[in-house]
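User: I'm putting together notes for a lab meeting next week and I want to include a structural view of one of the chains we've been expressing. I don't have a solved structure, so I'd like a prediction I can at least talk through. The sequence is below, exactly as it appears in our construct file.
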Amino acid sequence: MLVPLGIWLLLPFITAHLAGDMRPARWGLVAVLVLAAIVLGASLRGDRFGLNRVLQQAAATNAPGNASGNAQGNAQGADVGAAQAQSDWTAYGATNFGTRYSSLHQITKDNVKDLKLAWEFETGDRKGPDDPNEFTNEVTPLKIGDLLYTCSPHQIVFALDAQTGKLRWTFDPKIEHHKNFQHMTCRGVAYHETKPGAVDITGAAAPTECPKRIFLPTNDGRLFALDADSGKPCEGFGDHGQIDLKAGNEITTLGFYEGTSPPVVTDKVLIMAGAVIDNYSNKVPSGAIRGFDIYSGKLIWAFDAGNPDPNEMPSATHHFTPGSPNSWAVAAADEKLGLVYEPLGSSSPDIWAGNRTPDEERYDSALVALDIATGKLRWSYQNVHHDLWDMDMPSQPSLVNIPGKDGVVPAIYVPAKTGNIFVLDRRDGHLLVPAPETPVPQGAAPGDHVSPTQPFSDLSFRPREKLSGAQMWGATMFDQLACRIKFKRLRYEGPFTPPSEQGTLVYPGDFGMFEWGGIAVDPVRQIAIANPQSIPFVSRLVPRGKDNPAAPNAAHPPGTELGVQPMYGTPYGVDLGIFLSPLGIPCMAPPWGSLAAIDLKTNQIVWQHRVGTIRDEAPLPLPFKLGVPMLGGPMVTAGGVAFLTSTMDYYIRAFDVNDGRLLWQDRLPAGGQSTPMTYEAGGRQYVVTVDGGHGSFGTKLGDYVRAYALPGNVARR
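Assistant: Thanks for the context. Below is the predicted structure for the 717-residue chain, given as structure tokens.
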């Protein structure tokens, strides 16, 4: 605001009217403007929160196939064998280990700058008039053999030629379009291949129908099994190729239960969880996790976290517990240990817990390790006690073997919205990195309470100090002042300040420092790549009244996750939103998003740099590198390169994993709110990104699947 005014004051038609003794003051103004330019340039280039160390090179004993005989090297090699993607990408996180790592190394930090678009495919699936605002393309495709499998927001599956991007087949589940849906998205599909001599859960020979299957969950609560070669439904699975995921629930309202994330596929058991509508009512479907026969679709077990007996099966006289904690994110599995690791959210609604039962609280916002064969609990770890902030477990955990005092330890890394990464022994759930219980602010709204302590992991990206008025920010001094006034009016005593009628500043906010993108783990180098973000939210409890009725009505339909949400069945509704200035800019000073590397041998953050510009969000397309919010996660390869889309500006970027240097970037035609993947086909390594934008995130919508490769024969659709 002041720099344009200063420039205007230097123009000849102003200075010509100055008295002679005032004219030397022009040089003082020029000096101030030059100083302002220097400060601006320094602030854009510098990063006061950044870390600039360099990762140490991996030891030779960590390489897969090393024949040294060293026990640690052999264990790590076995971990790599379980976790690496090789030429294919067979599950959402590359494998059920959730590492988002590929052993391919044709693309390296030296040649990644030469990547070119190899092919592009448009799905044709666009937002319609009856779709919710949360219309998103969050998919990470799979690649098996010569086909790439992806899905679009309306859960339409596309099988593409992996080398050319040409369409082989498509399947449309014909879901109903309705604004009741809080989300319209597909994060991915799952794959199963019948092995020679395979048997089913009864010990009988596995059926010959559909030896290769694609599993597709839908937003209207169904699960399909498709022949991977043709896209036709597998007739022997459920009812002619589909099962009803709403079965077992007393409440079956369309849009209240959605299959947004792919199931976990194991040898004999298909494990499915789902998303339940947030903050609408306590009368919503259960979030029960279920295990199905991989071939027939028969229900074989259930884990209903809100039931005194979580494994009680539904029957004519028993339904799953309404509003029971659900697992909407992708899960991970270790079949050798016989365990599936499910990240749970809280009971519904999220922001009020005065009427939750002790049974509902047991596994609220926790990671549960369930027996794959029976669904019985082996262990659990709660990330937030008595969650009032929607701090559910939002990410697929990552499994990796790490060095310990007595040898290699099978670990699980669990990113949380709070910015904590909890590191546990995946066999029994005991902490490998300390997470001491720490006192937190008290004083919940009448009728509720707050846990006296919460766990704070020693491995964390959470803010180390409370926000202050000095950190309030804005595009102008006027909205900065408005942000400081808003900040002073809100209740804020640090992390876990309880919701209030006054309005509470929630930081880290509801988006979370980590979300469904998770982290990427290179088990050879023993490093993890993470993209934490920090955006404060405001949570204000709204007493019942004219604009917040106590019972559902047509004037307050379900749908949105922001703004006033009714939370029927509780004394309050809640008004949720991002902490923004009057101009719609975050009130907290940037950076808002960064990329970082963690040394898994020491569990220390080695480097961290802000990532992303405001080019596609500002009124003017200024490429200021402020570090922006993200939705999606990183991917890492054996070539020493980490790939990332997900930012609010429309780019795919490649980084050197050793020091975080930007090596390459390319402009995308729409928002890239997804996680990239990589595979090999025809002797070439491809990097694929799905770029369809995100409605509530405010990025440009599209329907693009794009594949990059090093120069060679380029095919295009």
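A couple of points you could mention at the meeting. The first strand starts at residue 51 and ends at 52. Confidence is low (pLDDT under 50) at residues 58-85.

User: Perfect, that's what I needed.
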